[in-house]
Amino acid sequence: MRDPGTGTEYSSHSKRVINKDGSFNVKKTGLSPSTRNAYQSLIKMTWARFFLVTFAFLAFVNAVFALLYMLIGIEQLGETESRNLLDQFLYACYFSFQTFTTVGYGIYHPMGHLANIVATVESILGWMCFAIVTGILYGRFSKPSARLMYSEKALMAPYRNGLSSLQFRIANMRNSMLMEMEATVLLVMVDKTQRSWKREFIRLHLEREYILFFPLTWTIVHPIDEKSPFYQKTQKDMEDMDAELLIRIKGYDDTFAQTVHSRYSYKCAEIIWGAKYTPAFDTDSNGDIQLFFDQIHEYERVNPG
After folding, report:
1. How many other C-beta atoms lie within 10 A of the C-beta of residue 93?
2. Torsion of CA 124, 127, 131, 133, to 10 degrees
3. What distance in Å separates the CA atoms of residue 69 and residue 92, rounded to the nearest whole number?
4. Domains contained in the chain, CATH given
5. What pTM was estimated for this model as a whole?
6. Mean pLDDT by 10 residues, the chain (305 residues)
7. Are residues 198 and 242 in contact, defined by beta-carbon separation less than 8 angstroms?
């Protein structure tokens, strides 16, 4: 039985459950075109791909109308000179873009009923296309999202009363204020002692699951006591069980005036045993606190215990 990623029993292994960008390691295939949502795809794709798709669509639409103008006759656009097919197509494209964007006409303008009908249809389509693109642009800019920086490594660090703890650190990369922050951490472990491997999902108890304000860094700590799944486990034990930490951070963003979410994960190879984080902020001579994002990932080795 193959690994479903978030299932409990399987016999063949998959990669991490949550990718480093916060997306789940799931590729959806086999859906009919009717079930696909073009709006969501345009909202979620990267900016480079969005502009590429937008320019390609606009170029295609105008190329189609340019061909229609060529079928009608380039002379219906006020062109009297004899030109080759490439020049006719280019001038028809220029005319099409002027009509599509309602910029207005110069030397070229529609002549005759047929050319004016096609130009009218293109103008109406242009209004609709620009309204749709504007709406999608607004949706992309106004989409609530969290930009958190996670420490590159989680740490097994000393804790009070002779205990150790699992820690990782986050910081807000935006200038907006995040409030009412909540953290949820799941430990995923695999039991490979049986013929059919079994995955366990265990919610970790955190020293502090909620903070009211988030101006600096937040070191999220899981104390390792008798109730912890890490209790009396070595690094090799966790590697054998293919442990992975699944993290969800939720908070209220005062810029978007909405709740935002962030996801992340750490695999065993990304957990350093016997280390602690070094401070990532300091106070200057004027009493102002400075947060150094380039020091978020820094840690130092310590004796376990």
Report:
1. 18
2. 100
3. 6
4. 37-142 (1.10.287.70), 145-301 (2.60.40.1400)
5. 0.73
6. 46 66 72 68 89 94 92 77 79 88 75 87 92 91 87 93 92 91 92 71 93 92 92 87 91 90 92 93 86 92 71
7. no
